[in-house]
Design goal:
With 242 residues, this protein is mainly alpha-helical. Helix content is 52%, strand content 6%.
């Protein structure tokens, strides 16, 4: 029997923060058995990726560009125009990202997702208490901080992953690695967006994966790809049975 593991994505502040606001939390599911299979077979970095490819942008710029692209993607689905009119700290990266084509996503409208299938439908984690619109607003709040200060609490988590864990095989192979990376918004957003993408409707952009290459978490990308395939098979099977 497949096991579904729930992780808590908390857009909470680390110890150096000054805010007293309650953290916003949503739980995204993932399939632990599938994750373990992927981790056993995935390498950390393809041979085709050179150091020059990774050093073109700083981790701060990579983090901002990925987060802002994800914000635009979810905003397009929600029918919300970007509220980010200027970004002093990342002006060039904002302009560059604004010129890209964001992927088309859609949510599954069926109510017939069974226990095992729920591992492949992260949108089921949203509710009236904390909706996708609320989630999108949380991303906007972090982007506003990045644009003014150049850093954020969640960026420090990302930077720590690069500095302390990216070269550790024990981390990349550990069962808790997925829960750890999904506490960082760019990973959680990538997971959500890729699972919601319309098959065949989008072209992959190297820029949206640069944050993965810096952290050498290629097993994460492989998991999302395989989980998306499982999701599509689930939906097709449901349609055939109707």
């Amino acid at each position: 029997m497949k096991t579904t593991c729930l992780i808590a994505l908390s857009l909470f502040a680390v110890s150096c923060a000054s805010t007293n606001d309650a953290p916003k939390t949503v739980q995204f599911p993932y399939a632990t058995e599938l994750l373990q299979k992927v981790q056993m077979t995935a390498g950390r970095m393809p041979a085709s990726v050179s150091d020059d490819d990774l050093s073109e942008k700083s981790p701060r710029r990579v983090y901002f560009s990925a987060l802002y692209h994800q914000y635009l993607t979810l905003g397009q689905f929600l029918g919300k125009k970007s509220a980010v009119t200027s970004c002093p700290q990342f002006h060039h990266d904002k302009v560059e990202t604004d010129a890209t084509i964001v992927p088309k996503v859609t949510m599954y409208q069926g109510k017939d997702v069974d226990g095992e299938g729920k591992a492949y439908f992260p949108e089921l984690a949203f509710s009236k208490e904390f909706s996708l619109r609320d989630y999108h607003d949380e991303i906007k709040t972090e982007i506003a901080v990045l644009c003014e200060e150049g850093i954020s609490d969640n960026f420090y988590k990302y930077d720590n992953l690069i500095t302390h864990y990216s070269n550790k095989d024990t981390f990349h192979k550990h069962p808790t690695a997925m829960a750890s990376v999904l506490k960082i918004p760019v990973f959680a957003n990538f997971y959500l967006v890729k699972m919601l993408e319309i098959p065949g409707a989008n072209q992959s952009s190297p820029e949206e994966r640069r944050f993965i290459r810096l952290t050498k978490t290629h097993w994460f990308e492989n998991y999302v790809t395989e989980a998306h395939r499982m999701r599509n098979n689930f939906i097709k099977n449901k349609m055939v049975r109707r």
